[in-house]
Each structure stands twice: as structure tokens, then as C-alpha cells.
Amino acid sequence: MATQKKKPAKKTTATSAAESQNPVLADFIKAAGDDKALLDIVQIIYDVEDAMNDFIKNEDIDFNLTGKERMRLIGAGVRNWGFINKAYEIARDNPDFLPKQFDALGFSRDMREYEEVRQLSFTLEQFLRAVNEAMLIRSDILFRLALRVYGNLRELARARVPGAQDLFNALLRYFRHRRRPGAAEPTEKEIERDLHSLLHNTADGKIVIENERPRASAGKRVLVDEVKRGRAAIKETEEAEIEE
Predict the structure, then answer these.
(1) Is residue 34 within 8 Å of residue 40, measured between CB atoms?
(2) Residue 185 pLDDT level (bands cut at 50, 70, 90)
(3) Are 26 and 120 members of one domain?
(4) 101 and 19 in one domain?
(5) Residues 6 or more apart whose Cβ sits within 8 Å of residue 95
């Protein structure tokens, strides 16, 4: 009697990700070290990637559809899904009215499969929302830590510590905003509003008004309004604060 070959057990540990030929996950594992929280996230990444590959294989999905090919496919929005569901109920309850050689069992199977995939989509949307919120919380922490580095370099640059100014300038450039080329000139109302904000220290930036006296033709006036607002506005005058 031939011995049945046993299927190897599926790897479930985070370290198995390094053997999945994914260099990104392998780097994550090395960086995580013995940090259980980080290893748990790596494990989730591996499990999701593994499940995604299985899903693509089982569904035989073509991810290379062109835009026109996708437009030819009919989605199931609220109205379309209502139509599909009602047609299914009629087909199920009135088999005598179905077209000849109509696969009623296949219709029922396709309905169940679609509902399962739709539930999977809802679950993934909730999961993605939770992941995005976790990213937002972590990015807030990281930004505040980066501001501490920025603030320390600003003080060292003011004290003329050798090498500090270049490092400070490397961070300062991320907070310099310029008006887009071709942007419409600000209105008088917008200038008055921005001027009021600057005078009351509720915004960052500058307002520059250049005027040329008329000669052979009408005069020319240039307005530059670079007032910035926001909860985490950073001043170009080398000030970096987050308003609490």
C-alpha cells in the first residue's frame, strides 16, 4: 500500500515571513528583534499577504484589466443589487417562468458567493479603517518627536554650533510654502483677512505689496500673500510650534 504523502503544516510564526521570499517582511523581522508588538504586526502582514495570494489564486482574478474593460463590467450598486436580488427571488419561487436551460442552481451558487465576497469587502473596510486610525495616531507621535529634533537644531543653529545650521536648513525647507504659478491674485477681502490674522498672531507667513508708478502705461501692482493657517503651522522665521 502506497504511503500517502503528508502536506507540510502551514507556517504561522512571524519568522516564517522571512522564508516567504519577501525582503520587506524579512527586514521588518530583523528590525523588530524581540519586540512582541512589532512581531505581531509582522505576523498580520504575512497572514494578510498569504490570504490575499490564496484568494487571487482561487478566484482566478485578472488584475491587468484596462480601464475600458472594467467599464464594460456591470457593478452592483444599491439599485443594481436590488434588481439582482428581486430577480433571484422570482427565479427561486417561480421556476416555471425561467428561460429554457437556465441554470437555477448556478444562479443560487453565484448569489451566495457574491454575498460572501461582499461581506469580505465590508470586513476589510473596517480593518482598513482601524489600520488608518492606528497610522494616524503613530504619525502624530512621530511628527511631535520630529518637531523636538527641529526645535533643538534651531536653538543650536542660533548658538552657531558648527554643523547645526545645515542640519536645521534640511528640515526648514519642508515648511516653506509658495503660491502656485499662475494662481489668482488675492482679493482685497482676502488680504484684509490675512493682515488681521498676522497682526493678531493667529497665522504664519507674510504679505508683500509692490507697486510701480505709472509712466507711459498704467501702473503695475504685485501682491504676494503667503499667509498660512493650520493647527500645526510652522513659521518660516525659524519658529516651530504646535498650537495646543
Answers:
(1) no
(2) low
(3) yes
(4) yes
(5) 104
Length of the chain: 244
Q: What is the rounded CA–CA span in Å between residue 21 and residue 42?
A: 14
Is 181 strand, coil or helix?
A: coil
For residue 238, how many C-alpha atoms fall within 13 Å in the half-sphere facing its CB?
12
With CA atoms as reference, report the closest residue to 238 among 138, 136, 164.
Answer: 164
Rounded Cα–Cα distance for residues 163 and 183 (Å)? 37
Question: Do 189 and 114 share a structural domain?
Answer: no
Q: Read off the C-alpha cell for 204.
A: 504664519
The total domain count for the chain is 2
pLDDT bin (cut points 50, 70, 90) of residue 222 is low
Evaluate whether 167 touches 149 at the Cβ level (below 8 Å): no
Q: Taking the CB of residue 162, how many other CB atoms lie within 10 A of it?
A: 7
Residue 47 domain flag: yes
What does the pLDDT look like over 54-78, one tens digit per residue? 888 888 776 777 888 888 888 888 9
Give the Å distances, CA to CA, from 96 to 85, 99, 173: 18, 9, 74
User: Which residues face 220 on adjacent strands?
Assistant: 212
Q: pTM of the prediction?
A: 0.59
Beta bridge partners of 225: 207
Q: Which residue has the higher pLDDT, 158 or 22?
A: 158
Cell numbers at 62, concatenated: 485578472
Instruction: Give SS3 for 221.
Output: strand
Domain holding 107, by residue range, is 14-131
Q: Cβ distance 211 to 219 under 8 Å?
A: yes
pLDDT value at residue 84:
95
* 210 phi, psi to nearest 5 deg: -115, 130
